[in-house]
Amino acid sequence: MAGKSKRAAKVDEHGVLLVAPPKTISNKEHLQRLNYLFHLSTFHTIVNDQDENNALARMYAKNLDLIQKKTKSSLAPGLKRTLCKACQRTLIPNRTVRLGVLNDSKQKTPVNRVLVLECTCGKTKRFPIGKNPSYQAHGEKASNLFFFQK
Q1: FRET label pair with 94: which of 53, 101, 138, 146, CA 20 to 30 Å apart?
Q2: Which residues form the domain of 35?
Q3: Selection from 63, 66, 71 nearest residue 30 by Cα
Q4: Which family is annotated (predicted)?
Q5: What is the C-alpha separation between 72 and 64, in angstroms, rounded?
C-alpha cells in the first residue's frame, strides 16, 4: 500500500465534484429509444383533440414501459411521475390529469397537505407536500449534479 498513491478528487470553489466525462454510455441506444417514445407519447397527448382515449399516445407509453423493463433501464423519477401506471397515459394538467391539494387532517395544519393527481381513468397519485415544501427527489437535487470538465 505504501507504493500506491491516490489522486485527489478535483473540487471547484462551490464544492462540486468535477469528474471526467464517461468514455462510453451503456445502453445508449435503449435510452435514446425510451426518450423518443416519451416525447412521442407527450406530443400525441397534447396534439390529438379528437381521440379522447389517447390510443396512440398510450401505445407509445406502453412500449416505453415494456422496453424499460426488458432492458432493465431505470427511468428518472420526474419521468416516472408523468406516466399513469394504470392506463399508461402521459399526465398533462387540465388534459389527462386533475390537480388538487387536500388537507384531510382534523387540525387543517399546512404540514398535512397532500398534492393529489387524478388521472382520467380514476387512478390517483398522492404526494405529501406540507412537511417540506422545498423537497426534491435525490436525482433532482442541484448538489448531486456532476459537472464534466473538458
Answers
A1: 138
A2: 26-133
A3: 71
A4: Belongs to the eukaryotic/archaeal RNase P protein component 4 family.
A5: 12
